[in-house]
Amino acid sequence: MEFLNVVVGAETGLLKGVDTEKKTFTNFNSVHSASKNQEVCMICWKDKTQSNVLVGLRDGTIQDLDTKSGDIQTILNCKESEDGDKVVIRGLCTYNSCLVTCLSNGRLTIWSESEGDIKTWQKTMETHVGSDIYKMRQNPSKPNICATGGKENDLKIIDLDSPEQPLFKAKNVPHDWLNLRVPVWVTDMQFIPESDRVVTSTGHSQVRVYDPKIQRRPIKEIKYDEYPITCMALYNKRQVIVGNTHGNIALIDLDKGHMVQCYKGVSGSIRSMECHPTLPYTASCGLDRFLRVHNIETKALISKVIKVKLKLLYLR
Amino acid sequence: MDDPMMDSTMIHDVEPSLPQPNISRIKNKQRRTELYREMQRQKRKIKLKEKKIKKKEREQLGDKAPPKQVPKTIENMRVYDETMVNPNDEETMKDEAMDEMSSYFRREATPKILITTTDRPTGKTVKFCKELKKVVPNSDIYHRKGLDLKKIIPQAVTRGYTDLVVINEDRKEPNGLVLSRLPDGPTAHFKISNVNLTTALKRPGGMSEHLPEVILNNFNTRLGHSVGRILASIFPHDPEFHGRRVVTFHNQRDYIFFRHHRYEFKNEKKVALKEIGPRFTLKLRSLQKGTFDSKFGEYEWVHKRHEQETSRRKFFL
Fold it and tell me: Which residues are CB-neighbours of B267 under 8 A, at least 6 positions away?
């Protein structure tokens, strides 16, 4: 098995780097600085070199962590004074050397660094994308496109160059067989490569595929298990791995329309999941305080304890 | 026909280097059972002989004797659990200092418990609730009247309750316990079994109003720590030692045994225990992060029977 290096963020605010081969982990920040306020909400790579990580915390601060040296620098605070404690960062990405943050109350802000010796970050643009956002993700092949979604806030695809009007706003499915409105709760989304399509996972245990060119309603809907799906990772063009609040991880084939494989062993809600870009491995972490790496094809398990409830992870 | 019988008895008188005869081939039940009893008797004889020899050896060697062999039990053959908490671990201590139960341990509020049941409880469950009210100080029983738990919870929070206990009933017996820490704390769902109310105990002792001491045994893993803290946070902080009342939660093999005693120290070494109050067993089914929400809540730990129970020696608490 090749060397995998994973950065994990914990609920107490600790950032850990995990060496999955040796099954050890190191804390990037010290235990003393851990507090509930510093809970890690989002992680993303700063640039393509994958040596610096941007971390978004619960109190709104965004930190820059160098994975090689372990230095942490606070860059900015993206929460306003009127945002309460319940508002968290739900999306973090970089675009054109600018920083894009999305808070759960819908505030999408683009920050750019000012010139000069002392670098400060200033807001260049701010829009609202609805309320109660659960996730914002950036299209890895087209970095100016990003998608947002949340509770009673359906999928929206936004171009960061002109963020006022979303490029695509999804429409809810027709009423169900009792003629009741189907509730909307988008928890995670992924962009399918080499196409315009977007896959979303919902809190009502559905996986939906949207194609902006064809129609506003989802072109495909797959139901998995009875519990809310918390996170999703893309394996290849056709297959997605989802995890739900009960600890069930499954590989879902979008063309076949159902679950293909299940990965056993997780007993707590899965908070974050990522697939390795080239090797068939997937790493997942969650509330049961374990980071688990599964081999997608053989379903083998290489697990590790991290001791604190885990929130986010990022694969190198 | 008699030959096999004769052969087998003769073989038994010789030292046991030859294999035992296969008695299951004998169709006659009487003869078969006789032979079996003979076999067991011979085995016991050999065993006693070996024991005597070993005892003699040990006496002869004195200090140099090899240590006594400890019998293997399921507890000491337990599969190593990675989440066993090291008492000096800083990270875990920090984590615990920040979790939802820490407000109890920092003495911010005295616990106030709300006990309720499922809709339309029968006699045994009602009696069980009344006993629980006596055991846990500062608690109130309310009729369920068919209300939703999700609607009860905000009302309980406004009235200052810190914990919610719901006794679930099935087939006229209490079989489930939901313990929820109120403002937004974790919810533990247990399965109750073996309920013995005070009336069923032989010579039960008298209950008193003193605040009890709480003993939590064997909650070693990280999950066990959380569960132990949830159970401890129902009881008030300072026990009244002169009341000599003790409540024990003993965890063994993932089953939590609840006992309620009154103790008296006869002298330095001897303690007399008198059992008061109910006796029941709990098994953790799931631990959920927020307040009770079985559909959309996030689970910290779920007991998945077919996925996880691979070994008889693996326990979670």
Answer: none
Cβ-Cβ contacts under 8 Å, B308 against chain A = 265, 267
The tens digit of pLDDT for each residue in B111-162 reads 899 999 998 899 999 999 999 998 998 899 999 888 888 888 999 999 999 9
What does the DSSP 8-state code read for residue A129?
-
Of B83, B91, B302, nearest to A31 by CB-CB distance is B91
DSSP A46-65: SSTT--EEEEEETTSEEEEE
Which parts of A160-254 are beta strand (E)? 168-169, 186-191, 198-202, 206-210, 220-223, 229-234, 239-244, 249-253
Minimal CA–CA distance to B236: which of B136, B132, B102?
Answer: B136
Residue range B39-73, pLDDT digits in tens: 999 999 999 999 999 888 888 887 776 777 788 88
Cβ <8 Å between B95 and A245:
no
Q: Which of A9, A8, A28 is nearest to A18 (CA)?
A: A8
Of the partner residues B89, B222, B299, the one whose CB lies closest to the CB of residue A245: B299
CB contact under 8 A, A289 and B302: no
Inspect the interface and report whether the beta carbons of B98 and A265 lie closer than 8 Å: no
Question: Closest Cα to residue A5, out of A51, A57, A41?
Answer: A51
Higher per-residue confidence, B246 vs B65: B246
**Any CB–CB contact under 8 A between B82 and chain A?**
yes
Name the closest residue on chain B to residue A303, using Cα atoms.
B82
Nearest CA to B255 out of B110, B74, B124, B123 is that of: B74
Strands laid side by side in the A198-202 sheet: A186-191, A198-202, A206-210, A220-223
The encoded tokens of residue B281 equal: 């067993």
d(CA B47, CA B227): 45
Instruction: Provide the residue count of chain B.
Output: 317
Chain B residues in contact with A305 (beta carbon < 8 A): 82-83
Output the pTM of the full model.
0.81
Q: Do A267 and B297 touch (CB under 8 A)?
A: no
Strand partners, A133: A150
Q: What's the gap between Cα B290 and its chain centre?
A: 25
Phi, psi of A144 (to 5 degrees): -90, -5
Q: Do B296 and A247 touch (CB under 8 A)?
A: no
Of A36, A228, A287, which has the smallest distance from its Cβ to B289's Cβ? A287
Terminal-residue alpha carbon distance, chain B: 59
Instruction: List C-alpha distances in Å: B65 to A97, B70, B71, B286.
Output: 75, 15, 18, 49
DSSP at B180: E
A268 → closest Cβ in B92, B94, B300: B300
Interchain CB contact of A14 with B (< 8 Å): yes
Three-class SS state of B308: helix
